[in-house]
Amino acid sequence: MKKFLFIQAIIALLLVSCSKQNPLSPEYNNPPQKFTITMLEREADTQELEWTEAVDPEGDAVSYSIELDGKILFKNLPNRKYILTSLLPDKTYTGRIIASDKKGLSVSQSFNIEVYQGQILMGTGYYSLGLMGLTNTGTISWRVGEYARSVPAVSGDVIFSGQEKVYAIKAKTGDVLWTNDLVQKENAAVLYAQNKVFITSEKKISALSAATGATLWSIPLQTTVNPSISKNILYISYREHLYAIDVNTGAIKWDFIAPASLGMAVAKDGTLYVLSAAYYQIDGEGYMYALDANTGTLKWRSKFSGQISLTTAPFVGSPVLYGNKVYFVSHNDKGYDGQFRYVYAMDAATGTVVWKKTVALVVPASGLIVDESGIYLSASSLMKLDRVTGNVIWSIEGNFMNELVLTGDKIYVSTGSASLSLNVFDAGTGNRIGNQIRSTFPYGGSPVVLKSGKAYYPPSSGMNTVN
């Protein structure tokens, strides 16, 4: 027994000695190194992410997980590019990508997903480049047709455009759903209402099926300005005539005749408002007419100073209704000459001028857009006026030669002439937001902005009148 214990003691001493001479080295492990995330295209319900490799110091394989608003959505992703789906367009998200090695050590990088800013539709005017769909960063997603001089109309995810023919286009992809050969490179105005597409072309007005493009009715009638629509009536101005047309049959309900050419009519609460020059020659006067929208009977007529342009710039001379006021912009008393224009606010019930303001606009390239906080217009300057007083809230000098579009808190407007740059401004402050949205193509029109399931149009579009 003693011999056995002695042997055990010797073995123990040998083991301790060996342990001291050759201690076991601990195995060290470091987490993967830091990486960066690039936010790619944001669509209404998706966000594409891409990130650089998170290199592991020990050379271990690295897998990735995605966390969104505190919840792990995906684990062990082998690739470094992913598209998040089922997002809400008006919601912001916070998240992070987690890079982990096989031993469980990890490093993470945070990201933010902003509210979807929408899609932008741009025509190219006389240039044979058609209608283009742009992302909110200015990337051209698709291009359809030729000579897109008019403002398109939108219903849901379908765009209706009058070019060398009438197109129905899928908004996201640019796929053509149907065409109709009514239009032949004319400045064709397009309206959508009640599952119909209304188009002016080749000295006639036509109604098409929005589903198939088939012609429902067509009447021989010209127009000098863009048509408008309210309830079941389509309003068409041709020179001194204003026609009311049944949208279902094409029958003319009534014809109002003024002393001179009429502009685009706008209806609200059963009253139709339309502007006219006093005479064909420029004499520095114009009229606002208020008509019964159903019968065409004159309710009142109000005379004002300042020439109305109806043919060369039809959106100057289109009234805007907001609250109990009607707003519009005119040339000065000398017509097209001079370095200023007039902006008016009239009482919608009586035609009484509430205020008249002189603004420094050399070229009246845009009509008005009005919201609760003010009045927006653009030409040689982009400006915002107080809706109650007409005083200038802010003004920005620049070559703003096309119509603006207001999308709640943002203004989209292009600058230049032959080759345009699209700009975005804060509607409250007038400050520019981000960089200019540019393209290599020459634009000839004004944008339509698609955002959160809604289309926002420039002032000249009759889609602003649909109710």
UniProtKB/TrEMBL annotation:
InterPro entries the UniProt entry points to: FN3_dom, FN3_sf, Ig-like_fold, PQQ_b-propeller_rpt, PQQ_rpt_dom, Quinoprotein_ADH-like_sf, WD40/YVTN_repeat-like_dom_sf
Domain called Fibronectin type-III: residue spans: 31-118
Protein origin, superkingdom: Bacteria
Pfam family, one: PQQ_2
The protein's name in its UniProt record: Putative pyrroloquinoline-quinone binding quinoprotein
